[in-house]
Structure formats: C-alpha cells, structure tokens
Amino acid sequence: MSKFCLITGGTGFIGQRLASAIHEKIKILSLTEQPDYNTVVCNLGRDTIPSNALIDVESVFHLAGFAHDSRDANKVLNLYRRVNVDATVELAN
Predict the structure, then answer these.
(1) Exposure of 64 by Cβ count < 10 A (0-12 exposed, 13-18 middle, 19+ buried)?
(2) CA gap 35, 26 in Å, rounded
(3) How many domains would you assign to the chain?
(4) What's the per-residue H, E or C state across 48-78?
(5) Among residues 56, 49, 52, which one has the least CA distance to residue 92?
(6) Could you give the CA distance from residue 40 to residue 46 in angstroms, rounded to a whole number?
(7) Domain of 38?
C-alpha cells in the first residue's frame, strides 16, 4: 500500500518548494484542484477537513495559515482562529 505525505498550504511560498522537493507520494490540501498533485480540495476557513484527506498518509506538513491581512483585526479574528487554531486541532484529531 502506498503511503503519502499530506501538505496543507501546498500552494504557498514554503509549501510549493516542499512539494517540488518531495514531488512523489504527496497529497496537497488546497483551495483548488492542483493538476500536478493528488489534491484534497478544502477551504480551512470554511470547510470541515474531508475524512479521506488522511487515507494512506504517513506524514503531515501543516503549512496552511491565515496571516498578512490588513483589514481590521476584529473583522478577521474568527477566520484567523478557524484556520490557525481550529483547523490545526481538527487535522490532529
């Protein structure tokens, strides 16, 4: 049975480089389908992580995060918490 590495944030600055370095046997958790990778489509700010995301996954590189938003902090606090805290806990569970 094949084992995969799952990369959240695989289309971000660090995630792209990691995905290139270990191109074989990876899954990308991304907002959109990534044609070069086995992709699990999920918006961590809105969606529940699909149950099939971790099938055959041996390692997880959790690089997704919400940062660098210039809007009023009070307006993005819920999104920040959902992506950076709640999605991390959900993924760990």
Answers:
(1) buried
(2) 13
(3) 1
(4) CCCHHHHCCEEEEEECCCCCCCCCCHHHHHH
(5) 49
(6) 14
(7) 4-92
Q: Any idea which residue has 């390692």 for tokens?
A: 59
Tell me: the pLDDT tens digits for 25-84? Answer: 888 999 999 998 889 999 988 999 998 899 999 989 999 888 777 777 777 788 888 888
Task: Determine the 3-state secondary structure of 59 from DSSP.
Answer: strand
Tokens standing for residue 82 = 């959902």
Going by C-alpha positions, the residue among 79, 65, 29, 33 that lies closest to residue 50 is 29
**H-helix segments, 1-93:** 13-21, 73-81, 87-92
CATH number of the domain within which 31 lies = 3.40.50.720
Joined tokens for residue 66: 């919400």
Residue 61 contacts by C-beta under 8 Å, 6 or more apart in sequence?
A: 5, 6, 7, 8, 15, 18
Which pTM value belongs to this model?
Answer: 0.75
Asked if 30 contacts 24 with a C-beta cutoff of 8 angstroms, the reply is no
